[in-house]
């Protein structure tokens, strides 16, 4: 399994991915799920992937091949805006499907892939997309400024309650790490090291790209203190005092 | 969808279920998912169900029929302990499977059912079981003193962080309601009214059985103040101050 989350904020974008892959609980590996494509000052794109690793790795290789080819084919360096970038990634994913889906089906394996693509190209505002296995995609809006892929449910309530478009990048990084912590606690197949990637609006380059492992002091602090803080918040709420008076239905 | 949660504590047991059923988003209804069987002073059992409503309703009808029959057949009044009660419910579920599974399969419908059965019989300690669609079951232990069925992921992290065997019944009711709130916020197919049922150890009867709807003041308070408390807890944790120093990988 995988957990990736990204938020599109006024100040920029935050991307966080875990790195655990598994083919059964006895076959667990570490693979990074974040890919960065940037030409500082001109464009910066971040791609996070979940699903079948053979599919998503092939996709990234094909994207890189097209970027390196210099043969006039469309690629992530040549697309004029983020919408076209999402369309291009979706098309490439369809190409992977054409190549592999039938063979996978013969082995009873579903063609699973989900992608988050965000970034900024030229003078356009930063944009964030969720790309599905079929190559279609949706875009984040002010109402829903974040996307999750993979094991999304454990870490969703806290994001729903906190995130706003005006949330700062520091706060959003904290929020993503808390959301990841809730997920890691509940799903063994999501694990460190984490990739935290931050873009600032109009900088057109990566502001930070940090690998967070089990020894990271800030993440360890989050893990301890968030549990404590939740326990404290829980204690602060009054208990029901009407239980003994409960009517017998 | 459905969300039900139950906790087995030193002080007794707490059961909470929602009441929303849906056959597509345009076909939403309210059905209670908690059934109570009690002979005060002798035995008290609480059954919560999720899955295909036609299956779980049939199961409850068959359990009640057997209890009413007085024909010497095993039933929930006659079983000598909670383990045998869980086995009996599992057997009844297998009988539903024998009757219906093939016909459902012909319509491409899976035989889905998950049950939580808890209670106390005679001098035995209270016990809590999670019964699967195949009629097999597991029992709660001090390490894992709670079970969830249905849409369990959104409301799991807060329970994992808070519940202990020594948690009081009032606190456990509050915890179950907070967990339900997180679930309702994230999944439209889980909704009020809620059934909250409380047993106290060795009372051998229902201590409280309360229906909680959208107008319930305590639940409304939980909904508002828990969001506030989470926001406050979030604000209290320090933001990362190392983002700008992040190495470029």
Essential attributes:
alpha+beta, 5 helices, Ntn_hydrolases_N (chains A, B), Proteasome_sua/b (chains A, B), UCP009120_prtse (chains A, B), Glutamine Phosphoribosylpyrophosphate, subunit 1, domain 1, five-stranded antiparallel sheet, Peptidase (chains A, B), homodimer, globular, 35% helix
> Which shape of chain A, going by the Cα principal axes?
globular
Number of strands of chain A: 12
Order of helices and strands of chain A: EEEEEEHHEEEEHHEEH
Q: What is the radius of gyration of chain A computed over CA atoms, rounded to a whole number of angstroms?
A: 20 Å
Biggest sheet features of chain A: 5 strands, antiparallel
State the distance separating the first and last CA atoms of chain A. 43 Å
Number of separate helices of chain A:
5
The fourth-level CATH homologous superfamily of chain A is Aminohydrolase, N-terminal nucleophile (Ntn) domain
Largest interface: A-B, 56 and 56 residues
Structural class of chain A: alpha+beta
How many structural units, i.e. domains of chain A? 1
- CATH top level of chain A is Alpha Beta
Describe the structure in your own words.
Chains A, B: This is Peptidase. The structure is a homodimer of 249-residue chains. Chain A has helices at 53-69, 82-106, 156-162, 169-186, 217-236, and strands at 3-8, 12-17, 20-22, 28-30, 34-39, 43-51, 113-121, 127-131, 137-139, 146-150, 194-200, 206-212. In chain A, helix 1 (53-69) packs across helix 2 (82-106). Chain A is an alpha+beta fold and 249 residues long. Chain A has a single domain (3-235), classed as 4-Layer Sandwich (Glutamine Phosphoribosylpyrophosphate, subunit 1, domain 1). The radius of gyration of chain A is 20 Å and the shape is globular. In chain A, the strands form 3 sheets. A 5-stranded antiparallel β-sheet of chain A has the order 10-1-2-11-12, covered by helices on one side. A 5-stranded antiparallel β-sheet of chain A has the order 5-6-7-8-9, covered by helices on one side. A two-stranded antiparallel sheet of chain A has the order 3-4. Chain A contains 5 helices and 12 strands. The mean pLDDT of chain A is 94. At the A-B interface, helix 3, helix 4, strand 11, strand 12 and helix 5 of A face helix 3, helix 4, strand 11, strand 12 and helix 5 of B.
């Amino acid at each position: 399994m995988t957990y990736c989350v990204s938020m599109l904020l006024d100040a920029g974008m935050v991307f966080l991915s875990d790195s655990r892959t598994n083919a059964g609980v006895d076959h667990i590996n570490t693979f990074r799920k974040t890919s960065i494509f940037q030409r500082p000052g001109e464009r910066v794109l971040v791609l996070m992937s979940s699903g079948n690793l053979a599919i998503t790795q092939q996709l990234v290789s094909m994207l890189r091949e097209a970027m390196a080819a210099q043969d006039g084919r469309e690629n992530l360096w040549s697309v004029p805006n983020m919408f076209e970038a999402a369309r291009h990634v979706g098309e490439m994913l369809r190409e992977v499907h054409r190549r592999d889906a039938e063979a996978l089906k013969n082995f009873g394996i579903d063609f699973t892939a989900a992608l988050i693509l965000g970034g900024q190209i030229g003078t356009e505002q930063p944009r964030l997309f969720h790309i599905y296995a079929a190559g279609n995609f949706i875009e984040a809006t002010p109402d829903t400024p974040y996307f999750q892929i993979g094991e999304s449910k454990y870490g969703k309530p806290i994001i729903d309650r906190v995130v706003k478009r005006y949330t700062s990048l520091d706060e959003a990084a904290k929020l993503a790490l808390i959301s990841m912590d809730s997920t890691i606690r509940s799903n063994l197949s999501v694990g460190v090291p984490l990739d935290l990637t931050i873009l600032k609006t109009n900088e057109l380059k990566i502001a930070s790209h940090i690998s967070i492992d089990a020894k990271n002091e800030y993440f360890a602090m989050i893990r301890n203190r968030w549990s404590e803080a939740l326990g404290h918040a829980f204690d602060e709420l009054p208990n029901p005092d009407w239980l003994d008076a409960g009517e017998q239905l």
